[in-house]
Every structure is written in structure tokens, then in C-alpha cells.
Specification:
Shape: globular
Order of helices and strands: EEEHEEHEHHHEHEHEEHHEE
Helix content: 25-40%
Largest sheet: 8 strands, mixed
Distance between the termini: 17 Å
Structural class: alpha/beta
Number of strands: 12
Strand content: 15-25%
Amino acid sequence: MADATLLAVRNLRVEYASSRSLFGKPTKPVRILDGFNLDLRTGETLAVVGESGCGKTTLANCIARFIPAAGGEVVFEGLDVLPLTGLALKAYRRNMQMVFQNPVSSLNPRLRVSAIVSEPLETHTSLDSSARQARALELLAETGLEASFIDRYPHELSGGQAQRVALARALALNPRLLLLDEPTSALDVSVQAQILNLLQRLQADHRLTYMVISHSLGLVQHISDRIAVLYLGELVELGPRGSVFATPAHPYTRALFAATPVPDPRRRRNYVALEGAVPSAANPPPGCRFQTRCPHAMERCRIENPALRRVSADHVAACHLLGDTHIDDKEIKP
């Protein structure tokens, strides 16, 4: 895995306009991401995990330019893509593709598989119809589908087959970055394993870089190189897969791991019960955003938002509990 940075998110801010008050005055916008920073290295698989509503999919949609940012930068190969329009934006999207959570609903129900897979080629290349059809057949074969699937409609596909078609469409333009939003959550367990193995093979064959959005820590442990943990729009922990799983440093990360079911009745886990609900993104608490649910919260947590501190090589976490132990207190960027 190379160390060169393919994508750098810097001070990203994404907010949604909220509804108006009873008297017609606009209320405070809901800020989903606020001053968010993250790097994605060439050739790696970075998993982004966290509870629903923490900003995972918003991050991917902003990188893909499906939703606007209120501030910050998304730098892809040295170029900030947020201001891009027209042909420049079109060129960026050749190198970045997104695979959505529900494979069937992400496919146009009125188009056959041949048109779905070749549509990016029609938009971005000058290939004629016969060349596009040939390329579509190649992509289907590469994703494990027979040529007979070329004339089917999405409703004639199983979940796993639809996800393979979605992957074939995403690979049509030979992108460098794939954003995978819960790529296996809508699939049966046996099919999930097939798709994961396919993703790993495609990454090796095409030297792809993945950002995987997921709730499944089992998937993350199987496929990721690094793990980024989000809570209420902030990065609370980032590190190599082995280090994060072996020594989770943030109380929220430990709670996520403890809540994961273990498929062995002989093994016991000490579950960490988090009291209360996730605070509103429109009115987050001062200081550490996790302090309203953290069993270790101190007075300092209610006043000062913790910076990222180094846990070990390439492993950082944002928690005041780390300040006076073996952790280097120096603030660092992810």
C-alpha cells in the first residue's frame, strides 16, 4: 500500500437548512460536518464507521459532489474539487465513482443491464454502440456475471447480482477512487462474502482506492486497511485496522466494539451501556460531543473539545483521557 495521498479533506463543513419557525423565521442550520479533516492514501481501503446520523454518507456524498459544502476543501490529486463545474467536474467524476447502499434501487428500472453498464461510456467517451456493448460484456464477466444478464432489467436480478451490475457500472471508466456506501448491508450473509471477495480482487486488479461506509464491524475487520470512527460529525479515532481493533482508544469506539455480537456462545463480552441518545446536530453540546453519553466524562470534557492525540504510530484519538498517559499530547492532523 502506497503512502501517497490521493484525497485530502480539509476543514470540511456541510450543513443543511432546517425548517422555518412558527412565525416564518429560519432556524439554525443543521451542521453535519464541521471542520472535518481526513486523508485517503493511494491503494488503501479506508473504512468510515459510526452510528446512523454521524455524517458518514454525507461525507461520501460531498466528496462525490452530490451535495454542496458550506466550506473547506476536498483535494483530489492536488486539485480542490469543490469549486469545479462543467468539463472540469466531469473529468473528476471519471476518476471517482460511488456504489450505493441499496443495489436494486440504484439501478434505473426502465433500462436493461446493457444500457446501465454502458451509460457512463456513452456520457464520457466517444465509443460507438457496438464498442460500448463489448465493454459492458467485459465488465459483467469481470464482476462474475454471465453474458445472458446483459438483456435483463433490474427487477430480474437478485440483490447480489444487482450489486455486481452496480460495480460493473462503477468500473466502466477505470476510476481511481470508489466510494462504497454500505456495499453489503442489503445482501444475504453468503452473498456478502462473495461481494467482499470480489471487491478485494477488483482492487488488486485495477489498483483501486476504496472508502467504505459501513455499520458492520465484521466487514470493516475483513476488508479495511485503516478505520476512521465518526461521532456527530467529528473524527474521534483513526488508525490501522489491527491497532484500532486491538487497542481502541476512544470510549465511543470501545462501546461500538463491545456492542458487536459475537457468534460464539462460549465467549462473553463486557457490554458498555451508553445512556441517553445522540445529541441534536443542530445544537451539539459544548466541549466534547460525546460527553453527554460517556461514562468517563470529566468537567474538562464539558468545556474543552479534545484534539486528536497520538496513541501509537498512525493511530490517533480525540479524548482527554489520553492526555496524561503514554500518549503524546501534541496535536496532529489525521
